[in-house]
């Protein structure tokens, strides 16, 4: 999830692309685990912390 956080902050890759890069085939599963890790969805995380 740390790699996913970094990619969300530093790239403009789509969330499904980031999920694939870190090894998740099912995007909803990735989103659920990311939310458990950070208390926000990947999009919320990007909106609050990202440069993109």
Order of helices and strands: HHHH
**What fraction of the residues are assigned to beta strands by DSSP?**
under 5%
Low-confidence stretches: none
By helix and strand content, what is the structural category? mainly alpha
Which overall shape is indicated by the principal axes computed on the Cα atoms? globular
Let me know the CATH homologous superfamily: Homeodomain-like
Indicate the CATH class: Mainly Alpha
Please work out how many helical segments DSSP would assign. Answer: 4
Helix content: 55-70%
Number of strands: 0
CATH architecture: Orthogonal Bundle
For the report, how would you describe the main beta sheet?
Answer: none
Count the domains.
1
- Gyration radius (Cα, Å) is 10 Å
- Mean of all residue-level pLDDT scores: 93
- Could you tell me the CATH topology label: Arc Repressor Mutant, subunit A
Distance between the termini: 19 Å
Task: Summarize the entry for a quick read.
The chain is an all-alpha fold and 52 residues long.
Topology:
Elements: H1 2-10, H2 15-21, H3 27-38, H4 42-49
Helix pairs in contact: 1-4
């Amino acid at each position: 999830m740390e790699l996913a956080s970094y990619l969300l902050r530093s790239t403009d890759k789509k969330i499904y692309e980031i999920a694939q890069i870190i090894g998740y085939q099912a995007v909803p599963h990735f989103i659920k685990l990311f939310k458990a890790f950070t208390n926000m969805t990947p999009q919320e995380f990007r909106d609050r912390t990202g440069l993109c």
